[in-house]
Amino acid sequence: MIRSLSLAGAFALTALPGLALDLDKMTDEEREVFRAEVRSYLLDNPEVIMEAVDLLQQREAQAEAAHDLALVKAYSGEIFDDGYSYVGGNPDGDITLVEFVDYRCGYCRKAHEEVKQLVENDGNIRLIYKELPILGEASVLSSRFAVAVKQVAGSEAYAMAHDALISMTGEPSPTALSRLADALGLDATAVLAHMDSAEVTDEIRATRALAQKLSISGTPTFVMQDQLLRGYLPLNTMTALVEEKRG
């Protein structure tokens, strides 16, 4: 509120008619008169405060969008073509959607079916999943299992594991993950043995490093073409953004 009032005061200075003052050269008496004039103006025109706050928010949003745009451009290779992340949907699609995901994240679970529906309905979206376990040991185990499945059995097996993990209700214990691997028709022994490998660790570490570069602190976070989208977005919003990107 103090910040808002200061901004409003500055706004009022420009709005008060006939004022062209150098504040640094004011005497104490002149400064008191000026403060009284500003206070009187704001009391007579309280909407100025909200105008100043709205203007500040607009400028901050524009600055954040410009900053995010620069980040995506700077790290586009790591975002869109890192050589290890899962690529699904239409690999030749004209729109690329990247999701940083944590399997234990409630909003990631909420977004999952909507992202799948978006990709299936559209048919021309390239989808990339990036493993970003940030919600504790259960998240890390889930991501290690998913990455191990991808590295041992390939992308199609990863897609099945991804879908299973995002809807998993129990804890991802070694026993539960072994049963999941069996249910998916995978070599459970090979997958579980690979979970603690350097290759799995390196992939998760690289994605975390990229998330830090992009100032990503939560999941889900999306990148759609040149735009960072932080947080859950409903299907209709994502659909509208795709249409907007296509122009």
Sum up the structure in keywords.
single chain; 247 residues; alpha+beta; Glutaredoxin; 2 domains; 5-stranded mixed beta sheet; 11 helices; disordered N terminus
Gyration radius over CA: 26 Å
- Class from helix and strand fractions: alpha+beta
CATH topology heading of the largest domain: Glutaredoxin
The percentage of residues in β strands lies in: 5-15%
Number of helices: 11
CATH class of the largest domain: Alpha Beta
The largest pleated sheet is described as: 5 strands, mixed
Strand order of the largest sheet: 1-3-2-4-5
Order of helices and strands: HHHHEEHEHHHHHEEH
Terminal CA distance: 40 Å
Number of strands: 5
Principal-axes geometry comes out as elongated
Mean pLDDT: 89
CATH-derived architecture of the largest domain: 3-Layer(aba) Sandwich
Précis, in short:
The protein is of the alpha+beta class and 247 residues long.
Structural overview:
The chain has 247 residues and is α+β, with helices and mostly antiparallel strands. It folds into two domains: 2-74, no CATH class; 79-246, 3-Layer(aba) Sandwich (Glutaredoxin), CATH 3.40.30.10. Helix content is 63%, strand content 11%. The chain is built from eleven helices and five strands, in the order ααααββαβαααααββα. It has helices at 2-15, 28-44, 47-74, 76-80, 106-122, 137-153, 155-166, 174-183, 188-194, 198-213, 235-246, and strands at residues 86-89, 95-101, 125-131, 221-224, 227-230. It has a five-stranded mixed beta sheet with strand order 1-3-2-4-5, with helices on both faces. A hairpin with a 2-residue loop joins strand 4 and strand 5 (227-230). Helix 1 (2-15) packs across helix 2 (28-44), helix 6 packs across helix 10 (198-213) and helix 8 (174-183) crosses helix 9 (188-194). The longest helix is centred in the N-terminal third of the chain and has 28 residues, at 47-74. The two termini are 40 Å apart. The model is unreliable at 1-9 and 11-20 (pLDDT under 50).
